[in-house]
Design goal:
Elements (H helix, E strand, L loop, with lengths): L1 H34 L1
Amino acid sequence: MTFGILFGMVIVPAMIILTGVVCYFITGKKEEKENY
């Protein structure tokens, strides 16, 4: 009940953050390579 809600509230943001970090890393690396 509460555990399930907590688990979902943790997994969803974690997935969003992970996707954002991956996107940021790829963009940063691409930008760095293009800049250099």
